[in-house]
Amino acid sequence: MKKLFFLFAAAAMILPLAFACTKEDKPADVEMDPAKTADVAKVVSFEKATGTNPTYSKAGKTYEILSIEFTEGSRYILRRRPLLANSLTKADDGVEVVTGTFTESNGKYNCQGEFTGTVEPKGTSADVTPQGGQTQSAPANVQDTNTTTKEATNASRTWKVNNSYIKVSGKGINIDTGFNGLDFVSIADYAMNAGVNINPVNFMGYSCTEVLFTGEGSMVISFSGAPSFYGTYRLSGENLSYTFLSGGNDIMGQSANGTLTFPAEHKAELTLNTTIKGYTGSIQLSMSEIQ
After folding, report:
1. Span 23-39, average pLDDT
2. Cα(81)–Cα(61) distance, rounded to whole angstroms?
3. Distance of CA 80 to the CA centre of its chain
4. What is the CATH number of the domain that holds 284?
5. What does the alpha-carbon distance between residue 192 and residue 176 come to, in Å, rounded to a whole number?
6. Do 27 and 167 lie in a common domain?
7. Is the pLDDT score of 1 beyond 60?
8. CATH no. for residue 83?
9. Are residues 173 and 260 in the same domain?
10. Is residue 48's pLDDT more than 70?
11. How far apart are CA 169 and CA 178, in angstroms?
12. 270 in the same domain as 166
């Protein structure tokens, strides 16, 4: 993970290939209808006492569920903690974040993906039924989510990165180039050829599949074969701040500032600016909504 965030430092962040307008003549953001599952978006948080939370097993490992957020964009964000084999004792691996898809019917959430099963919130508790397992009822804090601004409503969706553009400077390095999608192997390869001491092999699996924003303030960057990056964001007009909470290490556990704009229906442009280990960089992602 340190190597991954050295890439954020060295190849530092990403911007779309082209813009139709300059900052001076940029049109006003469009106002989109809420995403398709906005009316059932919800956060279900369980008690944090190991041994009382619901659990599920996958690929020979058992996980304790800490919370599951059902997003406006038909995705769930599940925070889990690995448990030691045949035990309800917390493992040393810490909290992980995984994502998947869901559908909702009559108050029951049917989940597919890293966690497959159903979740049925019931006020101060929730029933969790892993696929092929028994129903577990556990105390829970169940909270509906809602957005209060046009920008938050626009953001609270699931996005695909179409193009990215990187600008990085510092330590004699000057990178200014665009890429299709968001693939860290390609970015690392380019950075290595530009003089950065980096091995692209260390970034296998870090190809972005989607970016999630939620009305509750969560942000997730999911990858094809690597752990998700999870954090929180705040949006004030087009100004965005983002704090990394997991998916990296102490190098990654930093904040970034930038903008999030919506130039057309179901389109977004995310810009983040950061300074890490002597490198100054900007990332901008050109994104479209996954509907």
Report:
1. 81
2. 11
3. 15
4. 2.40.128.280
5. 14
6. yes
7. no
8. 2.40.128
9. yes
10. no
11. 15
12. yes
Whether the CA torsion 57, 58, 63, 64 is positive or negative: it is negative
Return the closest-CA partner of residue 208 out of 250, 167, 169, 162: 162
Question: Residue 291, class by beta-carbon neighbours within 10 Å (0-12 exposed, 13-18 middle, 19+ buried)?
Answer: exposed
Which candidate, 69, 71, 68, places its Cα nearest to that of 35?
A: 71
Q: What are 133's two structure tokens? A: 């397992």
Nearest residue to 11 (alpha-carbon basis) of 157, 146, 191, 164? 191
- Positive or negative: CA dihedral 229, 230, 235, 241: negative
Same domain, residue pair 115 and 132: yes
Please check whether residues 14 and 155 belong to one and the same domain.
yes
> Residue for token digits 């974040």?
97
Whole-number Å distance between alpha carbons of 66 and 45: 6
Report the alpha-carbon distance of residue 63 to residue 95 in Å, rounded.
10
Q: Which residues of 34-66 are buried (b: 16+ CB within 10 A; e: fewer)?
A: bbebbebbbbbbbeeeeeebbbbeeeeebbbbb
Distance in angstroms (rounded) separating the CA atoms of residues 281 and 99 = 28
pLDDT at 172: 74
Provide the domain limits for residue 118: 38-144
How many folded domains does the chain comprise?
A: 2
Claim to verify: residue 127 and residue 157 sit in the same structural domain: no
Averaged pLDDT score across all residues of the chain: 84
Same domain, 29 and 47: no
The residue written with tokens 């030691």 in the block is: 84
Q: Please give the Cα distance from 207 to 129 (Å, whole number).
A: 31
